[in-house]
Amino acid sequence: QPQLVESGGGLVHPGGSLRLSCEGSGMFLSDYAMGWYRQAAGKGRELVGMEANAGHINYADSTKCRFAISRDNHKNMAYLQMNNLESEDGAMYYCRGRGRGTDNNVWGRGTQDNVSS
Question: Tell me: the pLDDT tens digits for 10-38?
């Protein structure tokens, strides 16, 4: 059964950096467009960034230029590098795989990121 597991969340000070990881099992990430979403307490889930066609990645305006999504298909991993973190970035972060040419979606269970001084 396809599964994604996030890791790397934690507490970081404002202005700091954090890298989240997403490991796939029962699936090949190369068959999926990968992305990250987040949900802060009391708010809805929102896009952080998502791979689109031809290698382009669409980022939310709030994360553009600070966050970067990457992947390593050999390791079956995806990553979210977060720099210059702000208190508003504190949230549960979810990894998502969207099947290429299919309607199949796989979501991880999330990893918590807290930004506080």
Answer: 999 999 999 999 999 999 999 999 999 99
The pLDDT of residue 11 is: 95
What HEC string does the chain produce?
Answer: CCEEEEECCCEECCCCCEEEEEEEECCCHHHEEEEEEEECCCCCCEEEEEECHHHCEEECCCCCCCEEEEEECCCCEEEEEECCCCHHHCEEEEEEEEECCCCCEEECCCEEEEECC
Sheet holding 18-25, edge to edge: 3-7, 18-25, 77-82, 67-72
For CA atoms 20, 25, 30, 32, the dihedral sign is negative
Summarised one tens digit per residue, pLDDT across range 49-75 is: 999 977 799 999 999 999 999 999 999
Q: How far is CA 7 from CA 11, 43, 61, 75, 111, in A?
A: 13, 22, 24, 15, 6
